[in-house]
Amino acid sequence: MRPRPVLHLISYVLSFIALGEGICWLISLHAGDPAQARWALALSSGIVLSIAFSLWALTRGPVSLSRRDGFGIVTFGWAAAAVAGSLPYLLSGVISHPASALFESMSGFTTTGASVLTNLEHIPHGILFWRGMTQWLGGMGVLILCVAILPFLGVGGMRIYRAEMPGPSKDRLTPRIASTAKLLWGLYVLLSLAEVALLMIGGMDWFDACSHTFTTMSTGGFSTRTASIAAFNSLYIEIVMIVFMFLAGANFALHYRALRGKPQSFVRDPEFRFYTALWLGGCLVLSINVWGEVYQGAGAALRAGFFQGTSIMTTTGYVTQDFNAWPNASRLLLVLLMFIGGCGGSTGGGIKVVRVFVVLKKILRELGRVMHPRAVTRVKLGRVSLEESTVSNIAGFFIIYVAVFAVASLAMTFYTPDMVTAASSVAATLGNIGPGLGAVGATETYASIPAAGKLILVACMLLGRLELYTVLVLLLPAFWKR
Question: Cα dist. 340→40, 185, 357, 433 in Å?
Fold first, then answer.
């Protein structure tokens, strides 16, 4: 990995962060926030912009990216964004401890939604808007935005795109990767505008509508209210959010094809069909399980089951009910949905539906080989036969994911009151979901976890958002050899 091109691209990432903080400063001025909040956002923007300009000036020159450079830019770029994004929290006094501020910022950019904040109604509007904006920027990817805007990246942009875009397959909507990045961000903005309009029709003001759109389309889950979406107590708003969470959890390439006049792409895509079946089945089972035991009416049970099921499976993490108090079967099902997550090419986290689908098909193939050892069969995704290398890569991802989960859960037992909290905090951060069970449940925050525990979870968030390989490859000695 060569430092000069890596730092040069990080300078552009930081410039976008500075611009976002500057926009939130204007929001803060408009909202009449306290002087300390306005000053914090303005100073944060100035500091980050100064660092970005200095890096840019010191590293100017032709940019050509190797595969190693792509991994370095994405991993260190996200880390730099999280550090820069923590400044408004610290300088405004909203969060006093650096580890907690970094936790909140990384949770935003990785669209995890885990928080250390309470009493959100008392936090200045500019800071809350920045909190939501970090998730919106992180949802589609700050570096993919760089690829879309910076023409000099050229071929090297594909290395960044492959390292940052979630899922085992990286659909190119056009032959040029910069055009693909533009189209993805264009779709993202278009869907965001549609949700803002629908939420405002439902009674939200522009601030809440924009803030919640940021965190719905990114499947992030940060809210402007302490009680999350339950604070609005609106069936209409919950239905709108269910629809957009579901869309955000699907592959954005399918949305592009649908807008191009091919809505049948959804039906023909095997991952989307499996995603829909899991979502529908999971939400119905949740609704049936809580009906009668938690909610007396079928309508209330369906409303709770579908909202929380959608929120958890898409890894958004919004809350309308205290699912920590639901029956054990429902809690276990929610944990399973946490691990599955959204589709490849979506803004959702988790293992991804396509990987679960392929692993299930591989298991069926191996069972079939027991009966017919001489049979030659291939794992298929729809009508497409997958290469053995792809199947092995997905199986390897599963093994590494479980190993990271186990090691991190063991480490978190030193910083949490019980095993449920330890394991669910790792599942919720590694899968970029947010709320877990136990002491980090639906109505709780991560504020009680010590600084060392928060740093472990920060690492889990980054590993989960960049899908393990992009980060773990940096730990190999061979990566640093010329």
Answer: 39, 25, 10, 11
